[in-house]
Structure formats: C-alpha cells, structure tokens
Amino acid sequence: MEELSIRIKIADREYPMKVKANDEEKVRVASRLINEKLKSYRDQFGIDDKQDLLAMVAFDSLVEKMSTEQNHQEIDQTVFDKVSQLNQLVSQSIL
Fold first, then answer.
1. Percent of the chain at pLDDT above 70?
2. Has residue 95 got a pLDDT over 70?
3. Kind and range of the H or E element at 18?
C-alpha cells in the first residue's frame, strides 16, 4: 500500500508523518479535531500553556474512548442475549 509523507500541525507545531494513502484523511481530521479542542479549552478555561491544554485533550479523549468501548460492550452483550433467546425459541419450536 502506498505511503504518503504529510505534515500535520498540532498546537502550532508541525509534525512530519508517513501515512497510508487511505488513512490520510483520517489523520488530517484527527489533527483538526485536536486543534479545535485545544482552542475550545483555551477559550473556556483561559489556559495558555500548551502542555496543560494537550494534557486536558488527551485525558478527555481517553475518557471518551473508554465510554465508547463500554457502550459497545453493552451493545454486544445485548445482541448476544437476544440471539441466544432467538436460538432457544427456534430450538423449542422444532421439537
């Protein structure tokens, strides 16, 4: 798969990266979202220290990821339970 050399900017610093061509858009969107969160926190809390802002974004992103994973696990369990119930119903109707 073809790799592209790109530069992304986060918190006024540029980072050179090599990404797969089909991941380029995802990486650029992620960079934009990080910068938007940085700006939001800076405006909301009046914090100018970039390290503090980056730590807040990292923390918030991880909490969000953990919540999403928990929701997916709950959905998976619900689907598993429903399929098990359907299997039981089908098994009972065959007998």
1. 99
2. no
3. strand 13-20
